[in-house]
Write a structure and sequence with these properties.
The protein has about 400 residues and is an alpha/beta fold. It folds into two domains: about 5-55 and about 135-245 and about 350-400, Alkaline Phosphatase, subunit A; about 60-130 and about 245-345, Gyrase A, domain 2 (2-Layer Sandwich). The protein is built from twelve helices and 19 strands. It is globular and about 65 Å long. The chain starts with 5 loop residues before the first strand and ends with a strand. Bound molecules: zinc ion. Zinc ion binds near residues 40, 43, 193 and 240.
């Protein structure tokens, strides 16, 4: 396929229906984008590699015992040294440990979270799931390549802005370029997600941001149009998931306590919208399931659904019991913090209302719904990159002229 210049713009967490607040974007072709179940950490590798989480295996920030030595393995030597489980103490301890020591070993975009809820006695068993930054060589492994690596290996002239610190993801800090001579331009906008978490996406603040974003896209699109003419370049604008206003907050610790179970005695990891458990025996497993059943907003991922939802499945690494909440509900005390101030959330089931991201192009879109792996495949096709990995890609080229 012939190589074409590509302008691609990513904005985190923009809902499909937010397009009504973006006049320029709505003048182009657009379809909703189906996300994957789980937090952003599992969405990004899908859109950068063209494969689902069951292949790239980035399921969550932490896994249980991936390697012999995890970042907290040294705590095994002091089994009784940390008898406390105060969330504030743990938040501070894990924050500074990550800041001063962990960052030297691994620097994933998503960071490490604050382990404020998992009792310290369990920390020696956990390991990081994502070791490298998206654009580093072998981000996933030798076999699965990212668009960043492919563009570099093919000596394409490219410009990526806003994907690194400082000012990571802020709309106003993007360093734009004149398109002449570039094969691939990529602008990364994370602010859309932050504004949504803070105010909800369809608040006055959220809508005002969408308007600014629309203006930005229009401006950069026009530069390409001027340089290459309307038919001379491929344009992609997409998001990784939607955003749903929070209506219910669930404190799992309190809930389990009220049902006669001390959750601190169970190995578990809680994300904003999901909870993973590693029960130590069948009795504990039955008890966890009994309590979780009482939370009407929580659903257990059944065995067959792992395949259906393309989720990474290894009960040892990712938990034997994996629950998710319905749209609008969140857990408090998660690895992202206490969670009381957040107004909107993502990380829900792909079918949850409001959880669709969006996919926009100046090309004809062949399907009525895009997926995260489609973003990768369509873009590398536009760029004319020949890439035939040994592992089969999950994405499709969904645009045509
Ligand atoms: Zn996101």
């Amino acid at each position: 396929m012939k190589k074409r210049p590509v302008l691609s713009i990513f904005a985190d967490g923009v809902r499909y229906d937010s397009i009504k607040y973006m006049p320029f974007v709505s003048s182009l072709n657009s379809v909703p984008l189906e996300t994957v179940l789980g937090y952003s950490i599992t969405c990004h590798p899908s859109m950068y590699t063209g494969v689902y989480p069951d292949k790239h295996k980035i399921a969550f920030h932490w896994v249980k015992g991936k390697k012999e030595k995890g970042p907290y393995t040294f705590l095994s030597y002091f089994p009784d040294f940390f008898p406390f489980s105060n969330p504030y103490v743990q938040a501070v301890a894990s924050h500074f440990y990550a800041k001063f020591f962990l960052k030297k070993k691994a620097s994933p975009f998503m960071g490490y979270g604050k382990l404020l809820n998992l009792p310290m006695k369990y920390w020696n068993h956990i390991d990081i799931n994502e070791f490298k930054y998206w654009d580093e060589d072998n981000y996933i492994n030798n076999e699965i390549k990212t668009i960043f690596e492919l563009v570099r290996k093919n000596n394409y002239s490219h410009h990526i802005s806003n994907m690194h610190k400082p000012n990571l993801g802020r709309l106003h800090s993007i360093k734009t370029v004149q398109p002449k001579g570039y094969d691939w331009v990529y602008y990364f906008i994370g602010e859309s997600d932050h504004v949504s978490h803070e105010y909800t996406q369809h608040s006055d603040e959220g809508i005002a941001f969408l308007a600014k974003l629309d203006e930005f896209i229009k401006e950069e699109y026009s530069k390409f149009e001027k340089e290459y003419s309307t038919d001379g370049f491929d344009f992609y604008f997409w998001s990784d998931h939607g955003h749903i206003a929070i209506e219910k907050r669930i404190d799992l610790y309190e809930f389990f306590r009220n049902n006669g179970v001390n959750l601190k005695n169970v190995f578990h990891l809680v994300d904003s919208t999901t909870a993973r458990f590693w029960p130590k025996n069948e009795t504990q497993k039955a008890k966890i399931m009994e309590v979780m059943k009482k939370i009407s907003e929580a659903s257990l991922v059944e065995d067959y659904e792992y395949e259906l939802l393309h989720l990474a499945k290894d009960s040892n690494l990712y938990g034997e019991l994996f629950y998710y909440l319905e749209g609008g509900a969140v857990f408090l005390y998660t690895i992202h913090g206490f969670g009381n101030d957040v107004k909107s959330m993502h990380g829900y089931h792909p079918d949850a209302t409001g959880n669709d991201g969006l996919f926009v192009s100046n090309r004809h879109i062949k399907y009525n719904k895009a997926t995260l792996p489609d973003v990768f495949v369509s873009k590398i096709k536009s760029l004319g990159i020949d890439y035939e990995p040994t592992i089969s890609l999950d994405g499709r080229n969904i645009v045509s002229r």
